[in-house]
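Researcher: Next entry in the queue.
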Amino acid sequence: WEKQNFCSVKCAKRFSPTALSAQARKKISDTLKEIKHRPIKRGGNGQLLPLPQLALLHALGEGWIAEHPVKTLAGHRNSIYPNAYKVDIANPERMIAIELDGQSHSTLERQNQDRKKSELLVSLGWSVYRVSNEKALHLYTTFKSVDILLSSLMD
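Model: Structure for this entry, 155 residues:
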């Protein structure tokens, strides 16, 4: 009894899980790398990215990031802006933001929020392009090159 640290196996697992040991973490990490495991791309708040967003992100390739946070520089309490906006698809180096608009963007309140967000991003030096989900899927299925895709977004 003097050698026993816990009252049961269940209790022992709860207070000293093997996943927390450095050796176990390394073994798990090595195994995941070996099988080339990649996490599922997730969108804002842990949700899966919508298909139009995934498609456009795939078409645009490297340098483009989903759900990229842009700080608004709204430092004081009475600011009308949140601390940051999430851009659906962004290229931070080129400061290009692509916003995809689904069904929920048809209400007047949401359109006002979108306009406010776009105006702020433009004032911070970003180029903002708003695209419907339908147009995003159409562009993905018909694009020939990233340059043509980007010029189509600008129209």
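Model: The longest strand covers residues 84-91.
Researcher: Noted, moving on.
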